[in-house]
Structures are given as structure tokens and as C-alpha cells.
Amino acid sequence: MVSVAALLAGTSGACSGTGSSVREDTPQIGLYRGGRWSVLSLKPPHLTGPQFNMLLKDGVLTGTISGGTAPGGALRISIADDGADGHGPLGPVSMDFITTQDSTVAQGLWNGHRVHLVFRRDSIEGTVADNSDVFTRTDRDATRGMPGLRNRAGQRVPGADSIDPLPRNSSCEYFLTTLEPSGALTGGSICSGMPQPTKLEVPKMAQAYLTRPELVTVLVAMISAPPPSTAEENGPRFETGPPPPPEPPPIILRRK
After folding, report:
1. What is the pTM of this model?
2. Can you list the pairs that 109-114 forms with residues at least 24 positions away whose Cβ atoms lie under 8 Å?
3. For residue 78, how many C-alpha atoms fall within 13 Å in the half-sphere facing its CB?
């Protein structure tokens, strides 16, 4: 595994160590926030994970991102050397890429709101929208949520927000300013006002699979996705399914 900034700068890094989310059999990008991993497996042209089902082909990123604390959505983004344009999962995308000797800056719009992320050799800092309000949504009915989670009066039932979160205007701030010996970047993030310890790992194979603009776009898509609702301590294990449901209680027949 090599640091994100090193990939963007074209330098090399160390291999992943113990406790990494990156698996040897399938290269994966791992984002750790608040005790949970988000993982994106790289099997070009497919980029997949528990939250992601994307296809990157001929400079166009398409697919879907499922929501955690935000609604999910489809995206279609055309990527060029100097920027990316299209529609993200929650709103319009129009980013410029500014590359210098020691940094790559992604700035403009993501999910219909401001994005400004600076990728340096030893850090990533900036903000990106992780949810968007009604004014940037193409599906205006999403402002009311799923019909099945509304009562006869049209009001949301208790607990609906955890199952079907509504659009809102919120963003994440990242300050990954420590470069670990493994190449991972660590620090913190603040999403919707909640600070969390954060770690980002990127496999060395990413630079073989993706161009620099493609990697920047994929990373923006990944770090703008809300944290998953469930995950494992060292990243998800895709070969195992969810535990079976508990056995139903025994039926007790009343004596006559």
C-alpha cells in the first residue's frame, strides 16, 4: 500500500501493514471513519464495495452509491485531464483539477455544493458535500422519503431517518495530515458536525489501474459518501454473509 499523495505525485511507498483494510488478493481503497471501514475494490473497469457499484470506462465514471446517513443515488461523470463534469449521486458535478509539482487540487461543485480538496505528498485537506438539499436533487419526491415510511397524514414514522435519510445540506471536512510508515494518511474528519478519527489507505496498484484525474475523482466520490451503517473492525469480509436470523421463540399451547 502506498500513500494517496504519493500516488498523485508519482512516487513510491511502503507496503501495507497489519490491521490494514487492503487485501492482497484484490486491491482495495480503504477509508476508516469513526470505527468503521468503507472499502472500494479495484477490478477494472469495475469499482465495487458494500456502498459502491461503479464502472470506470473510457474516462466516464458511472454507477450508484448507496447511502448511510444520506440518500443513495446514481452518478455519471466524464473525467478529463483538467477536470470532471456530470452528475453525482446527489447533485451536479463540475470540478477543476489544478496540478502543481507538490499538490493536486480538486475544486468546484460536487453534489451541487462546493468542493475544495488539496492532495499533497503528506496530507489531504478540504471539504466536500456528503449530502445535498432539495435544490440540487433531480428527484424532488426524495424530499418526502419513501411512501412506505409515511403514515396516513403524510408524516414520517419514528425511526424512518435511520432507514431512509432525507436530503439536506451538509458537508465533510477532512484533515489527514499524518503520513504513517505504511503510507496511510491519518487524522480526522468532521461530517455533519461530528468529529471522527479518520484513515485513508490506497493500494499501489491504483496507479496502474487509474490515471491521476480518475483517481482524484474516485477518491472524491468515496470520501463524500456517508459512513456505512455497519462494518467490521478491519474492513468487510466479502466472502462471508450476514449472520442467520435468530430462531423463533417456541410456541406455547394453552392447556384446555
Report:
1. 0.73
2. 110/220, 110/224, 111/136, 111/224, 112/88, 112/136, 112/137, 113/169, 113/171, 114/171
3. 2
Residue 118 is which amino acid? Answer: V
Give the Cα separation of 144 and 150 in Å (integer): 9
CA 68 to chain centre: 10
Cross-strand pairs, 50: none
Residue 38 CB contacts under 8 Å (≥ 6 apart), including other chains: 30, 31, 32, 49, 50, 51, 222, 225, 227, 228, 231
Q: Is 233 exposed, middle or buried (0-12, 13-18, 19+ CB in 10 A)?
A: exposed
Q: C-alpha cell of 248?
A: 423463533
Query: What band does 154 get if pLDDT is binned at 50, 70 and 90?
Result: low
